[in-house]
């Protein structure tokens, strides 16, 4: 569907998650939009490490895209997008003007993987509820055109994950941020994988948040979190699933702090 509609498009607006900017890019999008103007929006920038937000912005600009930090939920950065669209499409608008075509709106395709915040962004950008939103992947099912104003139309598309992950680390990071269905994931294993990531990048944050010390293994560290948070089953056994949910929720909500799990 996206391939069929790309010929109608002047601009591709791609949303990525500031915490995992590379893993949250569908590699097929690069090929799809290679001859189009590109804007990359670093969404959920309030959850990403501010030092690395800036580095990722420079990375995307170095690839020839326009880039902007936003928070679609609060609207931060949204007002700057209209000017960025005009800048990204300046050559196209100039060609139209020379041909005598005036007031034709720029048509932009909004793309991104599941749960990266596309629908929230569109509603925030439009200033009204144009699309369904949800904090789980797969809310947008089909395409829809949205007329924002006289100068811009958006084509909303469903979030698409690619069929197979060549790199296990990519799949793991997408599971951390909730871009996969949590119901098909073993939460305790995912929590241990996240602890492995955090021990390497933000070790103090875990100790401060949960009042614990790192243990010999990540499974034992998860047990410490369970004890500290009183996660027990009826039989006084540790409830590691509940402890895993607490850890993952704290990471996803930013309660562990602003974190970026990938470096440009």
Describe the structure.
This protein is of the alpha/beta class. It has eleven helices and six strands. It has a six-stranded mixed sheet with strand order 3-2-1-4-6-5, sandwiched between helices. Helix 8 crosses helix 9 (203-210), helix 8 (187-201) crosses helix 10 (218-228) and helix 8 packs across helix 11 (240-253). The longest helix has 15 residues, at 187-201. The two termini are 31 Å apart. Residues 136-140 have low confidence and may be disordered.
**Assembly state:** single chain
Main sheet: which strands, in order across? 3-2-1-4-6-5
How far is the N terminus from the C terminus? Answer: 31 Å
Q: Could you give a short account of the major beta sheet?
A: 6 strands, mixed
According to DSSP, the number of beta strands is: 6
Radius of gyration: 21 Å
Order of helices and strands: HEHEHEHHEHEEHHHHH
Number of helices in the DSSP assignment: 11
Q: Percent range for helical residues? A: 40-55%
Catalogue the unreliable spans.
Answer: 136-140
- The outline comes out as elongated
Structural class: alpha/beta
What is the residue-averaged pLDDT?
89
Beta-strand content bin: 5-15%
């Amino acid at each position: 569907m996206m391939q069929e509609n790309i010929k109608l498009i002047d601009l591709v607006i791609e949303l990525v998650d500031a915490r995992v900017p590379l893993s949250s890019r569908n590699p097929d999008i690069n090929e799809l939009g290679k001859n189009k103007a590109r804007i990359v929006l670093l969404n959920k920038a309030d959850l990403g490490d501010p030092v690395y937000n800036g580095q990722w912005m420079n990375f995307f600009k170095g690839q020839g895209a326009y880039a902007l930090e936003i928070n679609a939920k609060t609207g931060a950065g949204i007002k700057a997008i209209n000017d960025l669209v005009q800048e990204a499409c300046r050559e196209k608008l100039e060609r139209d003007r020379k041909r005598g075509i005036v007031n034709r709106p720029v048509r932009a395709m909004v793309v991104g993987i599941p749960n990266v915040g596309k629908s929230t962004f569109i509603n925030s950008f439009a200033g009204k509820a144009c699309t369904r939103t949800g904090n789980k992947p797969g809310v947008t099912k089909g395409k829809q055109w949205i007329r924002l104003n006289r100068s811009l139309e958006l084509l909303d598309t469903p979030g698409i994950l690619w069929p197979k992950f060549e790199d296990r680390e990519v799949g793991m990071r997408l599971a951390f941020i909730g871009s996969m269905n949590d119901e098909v994931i073993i939460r305790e294993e995912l929590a241990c994988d996240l602890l492995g990531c955090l021990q390497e990048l933000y070790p103090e944050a875990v100790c401060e948040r949960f009042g614990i010390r790192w243990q010999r293994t990540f499974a034992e560290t998860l047990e410490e979190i369970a004890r500290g948070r009183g996660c027990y089953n009826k039989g006084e056994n540790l409830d590691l699933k509940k402890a895993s949910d607490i850890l993952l929720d704290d990471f996803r909500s930013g309660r562990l702090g602003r974190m970026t799990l990938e470096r440009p």
